[in-house]
């Protein structure tokens, strides 16, 4: 303040600078008022938040028993007891526990004792009940080779042979629908290469499927499920609301995008090179309802 008065006095002795002096005084008054307001707000804040109260990770906590003094013990990340705001590990009080359900027992095997003497001291052993242990196993997989004997009928009027369909396999396919769906799941759902799918089918299931046959199986499934896919797509287009999102998807080392379009009862997936808004517009068309997405 003393230096400001000296500066104003020197400027006042200079003719023609009174306007500058007035501007400096007004600016100084404004700064002084702002400082007073900040000091007042700070005093009010200290009244509302004593030194024994703080906020850590968005949660308030209180330091009790004189811990706010200089001899306050240091807070250690390795000691949860020194951090009262930190949640204790494990399930919290009142929360319902979630456990892995024990699977249903499909077979019971009793293992009898191999001897009646201790293997260490060779003393006599005494029976003390039975201990239960559950082990989940995968049965040995052997492919079923099924021969269908299909009765054929002849129409003399139409001069054609009539026979029932084999519902477990697609026409002219040597693999069942279940086996074909497993191949499609490995290739698409698990993102396995064609080479690895062929190897998996041979080593795990004992079925030899060439790489070319895998591509043919995927085409067969695509054609067989085409009508169902169209039905789902039409239902999604007509829905009052649709959820949509995309994620990165690599195919043989190349970058693509996997789009999903979901309603309450339907869901379809589309793989495209583009990640822009033109993909849902092309697939779903214009919509008068509500579209839920992240506007990426």
TrEMBL record:
Protein's name in the database: Transposase
Pfam family, one: DDE_Tnp_IS66
Chain segments carrying region Disordered: 39-58, 67-99
Biological source species: mine drainage metagenome
Entries under InterPro entries matching the protein: Transposase-related, Transposase_IS66_central
Every Transposase IS66 central domain range: 189-295
